[in-house]
């Protein structure tokens, strides 16, 4: 009797959890396992596995194992990468309308960001990837970006002539040029060494990225400028997407949306924890009056051809 029960239970489990996942999704990102995006991808993988009864397996590849961010996005188009969560660094080449989100001092606070990205504007921007062979899934978070350098920077004049690494993002480059720095666009994988060798003097990134990459080893000061919000956009290969059944697509869409809250909560939690650890590691943390930086960048939007005034107005209107 008992043996028959066990056999029946085993048979039932076998049907519920196929020994081999039918569909494998390779998901890459450009940061380390201590970053909230990695934790969210693991959470996402678990949700997808549960919802599909083990039929879909998400494999997570951290640390640019699937390439630098731009290479991963190209991989989505070619079908060699199934999913990637990337910063907006390389994205304007694929979805130019995203430029508006890269404007410094655009968002009032995180609630303003979430209202916009989870609302119509965010949905439209994700859809704008579709014609480029990419399916936009969700807006996750890299975080508010802050400056690091080997000296105190409390006003735009302190940036004068500084070789500042920016992402390969035209809006960010234009902004730092306007502020008086010499922006040097560079893929993330080269930044630590370049800072160490003095090829660049400074860089800007969220607290989580600064901490998980031990930037205090090559930078002495962290200026809490929060000059721009950095999303991490969860993207899927359209080629792969079209090969999935409608049920599988729903599972992935839902799991990505359900992981968004988890990801942002982790981001907020780790940001506090990591800032304390950055201080423990001896970095000088400077509070900055951002007013002169804002003033210097007031006219930036008008100089950027990919920024649609209509979309900018809708974003500004959502600040209240
Ligand atoms: O995606 O390139 C960057 O500065 C990014 O913020 C980083 O790689 C995390």
UniProtKB/TrEMBL annotation:
Signal peptide (UniProt feature, chain positions): 1-21
Stored InterPro entries: DctP_fam, TRAP_DctP, TRAP_DctP_sf
Pfam families associated with the record: DctP (PF03480)
GO molecular function annotations of the record: carbohydrate binding
Keyword list, A-Z: Signal
An example Gene Ontology CC term for this record: outer membrane-bounded periplasmic space
Biological processes per GO annotation: transmembrane transport
Name of protein: TRAP transporter substrate-binding protein
Species this protein is from: Tianweitania sediminis
Taxon lineage: Bacteria, Pseudomonadati, Pseudomonadota, Alphaproteobacteria, Hyphomicrobiales
């Amino acid at each position: 009797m008992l043996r028959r029960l066990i056999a029946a239970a085993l048979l039932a489990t076998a049907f519920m959890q196929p020994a081999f996942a039918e569909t494998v999704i390779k998901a890459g990102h450009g940061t380390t396992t201590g970053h909230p995006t990695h934790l969210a991808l693991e959470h996402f993988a678990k949700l997808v596995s549960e919802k599909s009864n083990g039929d879909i397996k998400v494999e997570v590849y951290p640390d640019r194992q699937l390439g630098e961010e731009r290479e991963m996005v190209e991989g989505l188009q070619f079908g060699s990468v199934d999913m990637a969560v990337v910063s907006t660094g390389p994205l304007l080449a694929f979805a130019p309308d995203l430029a508006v989100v890269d404007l410094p001092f655009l968002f009032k606070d995180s609630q303003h960001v979430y209202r916009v990205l989870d609302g119509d504007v965010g949905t439209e921007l994700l859809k704008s990837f579709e014609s480029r062979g990419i399916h936009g899934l969700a807006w996750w978070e890299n975080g508010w970006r802050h400056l690091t350098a080997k000296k105190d920077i409390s006003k735009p004049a302190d940036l004068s002539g500084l070789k500042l690494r920016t992402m390969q993002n035209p809006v960010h480059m234009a902004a730092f040029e306007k502020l008086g720095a010499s922006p040097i666009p560079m893929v993330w994988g080269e930044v630590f060494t370049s800072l160490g060798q003095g090829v660049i003097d400074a860089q800007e990134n969220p607290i989580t990225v600064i901490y998980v990459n031990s930037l205090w080893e090559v930078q002495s000061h962290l200026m809490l400028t929060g000059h721009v919000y950095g999303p991490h956009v969860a993207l899927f290969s359209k080629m792969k997407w079209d090969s999935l059944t409608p049920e599988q697509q729903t599972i992935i869409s839902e799991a990505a949306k359900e992981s968004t809250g988890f990801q942002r909560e982790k981001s907020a939690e780790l940001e506090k924890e990591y800032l304390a650890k950055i201080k423990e590691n001896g970095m000088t943390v400077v509070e900055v009056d951002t007013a002169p930086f804002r003033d210097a960048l007031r006219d930036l939007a008008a100089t950027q051809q990919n920024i649609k005034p209509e979309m900018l107005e809708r974003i500004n209107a959502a600040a209240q």
